[in-house]
Amino acid sequence: MENIQIETDLKSSLESLYTERNISLFGSDSSYVAGLRKKAFDKFRKLGFPHARLEKWRGTDLSKTLATEFEFAMNAPAAEIDIESIFRCEVPHFETFLVAQLNGWYVFKHNPLTTLSNGIIVGSLAVAFKKYPELISRHYGKFSENAGEGLTALNTAFAQDGIFIYVPDNVTVPDTIQMVNIVDSDRNLMLQTRNLVILGNNSHLRLVQCDDSINHKITFINSVSEIYIGRDSTLDHYKLQNKDENSTLINTIYFHQESGSTLSSNSISLNGGIIRNSSVVELSGENSTANIYGVYLMDKDQHVDSQVFIDHQVPRCQSSELFKGILDDHASGVFNGHVIVRRDAQQTNASQTNKNILLTDKATIDTRPFLEIYADDVKCSHGATVGQLDNDAMFYIRSRGISESNARILLMYAFAAEVVNKIEIPELRQRIDDMVKKRLRGELSYCDQCVLHCSSEEKKVSFKIDLSKI
Amino acid sequence: MEKEQNQIIEEVTQGEYKYGFYTDIESDSAPVGLTEETVRFISARKNEPAWMLEFRLKAYRHWLAMTEPTWANVHHPPIRYQDIIYYSAPKRKKELKSIDEVDPELLDTFNKLGISLEEQKNLAGVAVDAVIDSVSVKTTFTETLSKYGIIFCSFSEAVQNHPDLVKQHMASVVPHTDNFFAALNSAVFSDGSFCYVPKGVRCPIELSTYFRINAANTGQFERTLIVADEGAYVSYMEGCTAPMRDENQLHAAIVEIVAMKDAEVKYSTVQNWYPGNKQGQGGIYNFVTKRGICKGSHSKISWTQVETGSAITWKYPSVVLMGDNSVGEFYSVAVTNNYQQADTGSKMLHLGKNTKSTIISKGISAGFSNNSYRGLVKIMKRAENSRNFSQCDSLLLGDKCGAHTFPYINTQNHSSIVEHEATTSKISDDQLFYCNQRGISTESAIGLIVNGYAKEVLMHLPMEFAVEAQKLLAISLEGSVG
Hints:
The structure holds 2 protein chains of 2 kinds. Chain A is of the alpha/beta class. Chain A folds into 2 domains: about 5-285 and about 425-470, no CATH class; about 390-425. Helix content of chain A is about 25%, strand content about 40%. In chain A, the strands form 2 sheets. In chain A, strands 1, 2, 5, 6, 7, 9, 10, 12, 14, 16, 18, 20 and 22 form a 13-stranded mixed sheet that branches. In chain A, strands 4-3-8-11-13-15-17-19-21-23 form a 10-stranded mixed sheet, with helices on one face. Chain B is an alpha/beta fold. Chain B has one domain (about 1-475). Chain B is about 25% helix and about 35% strand. Chain B has a 10-stranded mixed sheet with strand order 4-3-7-9-12-14-17-20-22-24. In chain B, strands 13-15-18-21-19-16 form a 6-stranded parallel β-barrel. In chain B, α7 (about 155-160) packs across α8 (about 165-170). The longest helix of chain B has 17 residues, at about 440-460. Mean pLDDT of chain B is about 80; it is low at about 90-100 and about 120-125. The interface between A and B is large, with 35 and 36 residues.
């Protein structure tokens, strides 16, 4: 594994890396990808890294991360890494099709790009670049490049590998596909991971995205995913984040929805240094629905930032957002939900809710639920609250002989449950439910093994992944 | 019915501005453009003491280093600050002793505005300070007020007669460094109103200022300072109009309110600057900084505004809740029509313990206009047990307009409760049908519904203003409001 040492200013190092190593790193790009890369690089040069004065970055300060010395894993790790040796999922009875990335590179045992019987293609994006140029030029970089976001441009400029999923028309993917992003390095590492998911017409997919780190070095993951949802298709999407406090995770997902499609996205952030989940949803076909949910439970010096941008471009679409958070110790949170209803996007229904509980005077929350509406026949609402545990409810529980600490946990759990209960996969919901309980009891910290490494004593069930599928 | 509705909405956009006349009053103006000389000219013309000139120059130098803010959700061609006349005063022949000596043209102007000074003086019992082209022309009721020890005069008079009070409070709420337009105002402000209510005095009448821009190519930069000492109470009203002109005129005012312990200030605005014509030409750029500070405990500041005029409004009346148990309120109705743009809202900064704030904002957009609510609620660490409730509703009349909400909420302690809610909708067919069914025409029904929608805010206006505000709403949405 060859790493390039970055000594000083991150931006100038990245720039010189791009110009000096262009041919050796990106020489084999197709003209389409090369063109995107070039444009994105120029854009990154212009925009640079985000700073707190940008409206979209108020409240999230990356300066400490950006001052760190990083290496980049620009070359693929040695082949045939035994995925079981580094990752083991322990959600009981959770049948998943597992795909994994190690330091931004797709990990495989037999085949980098598998075609399953019903035409589903799963595998490495780098390989897909070459094998399916037609699919790539139709979807790759289409939804992310108008965003005017420096970090997305940076990702496009340097992205080499990631996970590629293609589901053809009229296919219901039987197993949940679990995408795991593992970081394992003895050096500080910055990664540009890139995923592309294409869902054809009238198809159904359940996708779980996990972020995990097994080292204790500083990591800066700048992950960009593009997800295309075809006509009348359904996507259930889950993000699980339980990372160590040295990590900065910028997770940006661009969803593009065609008519009649349904998206349900759920992010669960339990631990992490700086986490920023950014979901950009383009509702470009009529009668489509987007439900974006999130729950964040943060303590110590952790910071979580939830950005949701929903673009109602056409009439008769629905969107709803529900984000709930509990912030303890010095933790800080940002919520920025932005719904835009374009001219003529009549009969839009959009709702936005953000509720927060602060447990200490050191914790802070910054919430900005925005509505921007250019059509008149719409129903849009938003609500935001910041408060604490209800005294009456507390008294009610305590008067029944429940200790104060248990009563608090009960109330916090009930608060978070509204989002957790929206998880449609029963095994996953059960597990996350357990994790939230443990998290609230303070028993769960980031784990060394897996994002779902959460087996409790009373429920020790091990689960094996069939790697022959990959 | 849809056709009928469209027609009504079209009629709405035909609404005429009836204050668009121009009065030929001789005026004394500064040369066009802004330099240090202009600042000195204004100061000299007003015969100001040295400390005032120093303040202006400090602000001017600071302004030079600043750039115009661009974050507001409004679009306009760049303002050419060197093409503006920064000082224009109706020529004064001599000191005025009684209302009879006021220039008859001027009195006529006020009569047309529907605020006969005499009428107000005799019937309504409202003390009026009238400001034309940023110079105060007449203050009524000064004598009655002085019986209570209340000072109500033009800002220039205050500088001359009460320099200590002005020195103590001016720029204590809005410093000259606050923002681009506040710095500009601090450098070139020409006049404004000053009000001081002494300890324990409850001002027996409503105080009122009328602002009018008359001369062409001028900017209006007035400054209002209201100080309510311990236990005092005052209700203050402000109204504004301007002639119809094709070019845009700039209005950058500052309003500062200081409320000491147990004091209460109620500030009401009916803003009706010329909004430009149907094609969006002309109109006033209304970039105003309004802020009050609840300095002492148990003090209260309440802003009520009805915004119907101006091509562009950029205004966020704010309250700094410094004293414990202090209260801040903001009630607003903002109507935009044709090509008007409004970016308005409120800021509530909770510093003291047990402080409470309420924000009620009602936006109505019609035509091609854009109406944005932008507000900040910030609860600091020390502001334990603070409480905020915000509600911002938007009503859309027509499918070419926009209604936007940009709330910012920042909470830094765990004992406070902040709630924000907002809805955006149009007048529902059900509501219209219900009215139609009872024999109420669609036109009257829209009027009824809009009035009901704005009522929550209008009821906070003083009586004299509530009537005027309702009339204004009717003009702004002419053809649909009964």
